[in-house]
Amino acid sequence: MLSKQQVEHVAKLARLSLTEDEVELYTKQLSKILDYIDQLNEVNTKGIEPMTQPIPTVNVMREDIVKKQFDRSEVLRNAPYEEYGFFRVPKIGE
Amino acid sequence: MSKSNLTEKSAKEINRLFLNKEISAKEIVDAVYKQIEIVEPQIQALNSITKDLAYKQAGELDKKISKGEKLSSIAGVPIVVKDVICVKTYPATCSSKILENFIAPYEAASTNKLWEAGAICIGKSNMDEFAMGSSTENSAFKKTKNPWNLNTVPGGSSGGSAASVASMEVPVSLGTDTGGSVRQPASFCGVVGLKPTYGRVSRFGLIAFASSLDQIGPFSRNVYDTALVLQHISGYDLKDSTSLNVEVPDYINKITTTSLKGKKIGLIKELMGDGIDSEVKKSIEASVKIFNNLEAEVVEVSLPNVKYSVPIYYIIATAEASSNLARYDGVKYGYRTAGAKELLPMYAKTRQEGFGAEVKRRIMLGTYALSSGYYDAYYKKAQQVRKLVAQDFLNTFEKVDLLISPTCPTTAFEFGSRVDDPLSMYISDIATIPANLAGLPAISIPCGFDSRKLPIGLQIIAPSLSEELLLSAAYSFEYACNINITCRSFLTAK
Lengths: 94, 494
Hints:
Chain A is mainly α. Chain A is built from three helices and two strands. Chain A has a domain at about 1-40: Histone, subunit A, CATH 1.10.20.
């Protein structure tokens, strides 16, 4: 069972400014989903290696060569705010 | 005759007509857009059409063929692409407000291969936002209808890709399958849908949802066309380090020459029990008889950990999603909230306004599962049980060549019937999720209808990288089953 405070904390971690109604709804719904997920606890997983992905590949490396892939203007084309060829953001910090 | 009902034809047949110069690429594109104009107001499968690109590609094809150039087995075939895959200089919205105005700056590896081979890009299809959902109702833009019954959902998340093929806008389309998002809508819409082995098809240019599960796969109205598309999108790609550097077999040749005689097929016991609709069960039992007629031996098998697939999935997929979707912050691309004066509130308000309810729910669940103090209890635990599911498959494939089950517990459901109860929507993915967890190839093919005349899908699962065996089985089954899966309401308008 999740508390409202936990949901608010998770929303903060996830950078979501949820409304009061959403906090309430998600508290209910996520609790129900987590109850369902709790059935995993009946499985004995002692000594089982966690599976991170389905194929055995690890650490695929390539030569570190600098290549031009995009023009600056192409990259900035999708930016919601840009100025002087940079991404523009509001001020950082208090 | 050959031109008047062009949109009903298979990809194979359209390619043949084009290569024989019985029809031009431009005429193909004309016919497709005419059908789209008629069908789209009812079905709403597409977020956008790519007319400029289609006619440009058609023009080039017509020039090449007049010069006598040798063209491929997919040249001239019109294709719809799920709106989560990047087609350069066209929108890639993921059916999300947050990417509503996003223009893809590069081309996905899979679509690049298709265009290089002469396939024609028709448009981008609707989906559940960021591929999260099983009904396409989570799209921020429109509700795609199931061509078999306009009051029911097309399935999801690749609902638009499935509906566009079923309503004969195009013979083939691309979807993506993270927990069943190709196979489930294929089942609901009465078409063929394939999820290849994880790593078979490059994910470069596929906007990520859950990176250890996502895989691109085709839809079509027959097994041959699915093999055809797979042939052209498969293979190693330097830009996707999880793509597998192994040879791609000649699927077309294999499926038309391989027999099922003497093959052993396991019917998954856990996916034929409670919760599976009785009409669906009956249809799968009839399918078993068809395999018997093909001289395959069908035995019941048990994969005891498969029953944990849904809880495993909704931890792993949401955890990966919460990380992948962290990039949508209103800085580099996409929607940004108006008027926020500081950075942190800008992030939080942008994401609050830009994401829909289901995406936020999953980001919350995934963030929780990865948060300090809960990581071991949820994320690590889910990864361990995932391993057990994968081992169940490995053990079972020592005894049988292929596995079968229903693709979905039910046929298509009504709009609005599950959106308020996320858990009931999640549980409907029980039969498709296991193949994603284990990275295995799996296909859904039509095997019958319920009493409401809604299609039922049979799922076949094969060992890793055994697509040729999977497709051969589906091809033989399709021939022996011999049901008419033409959605007659959408035959080419005369």
